[in-house]
Amino acid sequence: MDCDEARDLLDAYADNALGLGEAARLNHHLQDCATCRAELDAIRDLGHALRAQAPYHRAPDALRRRVLAGLPQGAAAASPRPAQPGGRTVGRGVRAWASPANVANLAMGMIAACALVLAAVLWLQRPTAQGLLAQQIVASHVRALLSGHPIDVISTDEHTVKPWFNGRLDYAPPVVDLASLGFPLVGGRVDYVGARRVAVLTYHAGGHPIDLYLFPTTGGTAAPQTRSNDGYSLATWTAGGMRYWAITDAQAAVLQRFVQDLRSASS
Prior knowledge:
10 helices
């Protein structure tokens, strides 16, 4: 397990929502990764802070008055229950509990509970770290297409594209030409995603561009994972100390074949 995969699981791990297998794998990773342990501590601290310090807002008086005004007036008094031996009446305690004030408090409690549930749902549905990075990849890809200048160095020669990145990045991205496999290299550019400058190689697949984002990672090797965002097909994997993201508007099957051919040519 690498750090990218671990970060996707940290939230569920903090909530004890992982299966035994994933929890064991993540435990093994955390033993050797201080960065992920620190991120897990931050997630737990945030949860504690929300539970302990979240502000409580009392319902406005106007809302309380509207709830009270909507209740049946004098309904309980208009239908007295038969008296029982000893002077007590049937359902006296129930009617006392169901006084307008108590019903209003119950309504306020339900509103507060609904707000708490909504906040919890929003918290659980927030994008994962990998999901946020996927959104940035999509935004970068679309921004490059709309700019009319999606490629900084135009060349089908990997020996021209690769040295172009020298001095523009703090690492040397591997560049592979896949023209013989139906995915010709057409150039590259430098973009900014994940809070860093990254290399982007552009290939073509039957008229559809495929942008390949490459940047170093501390993780090991991870098999490709595919997803779809905003109509684009994406795949990500790690190999040789690099994290790869590929994106295209071509069919998912085309992207899968591209990823397979690239991994085979790079091995």
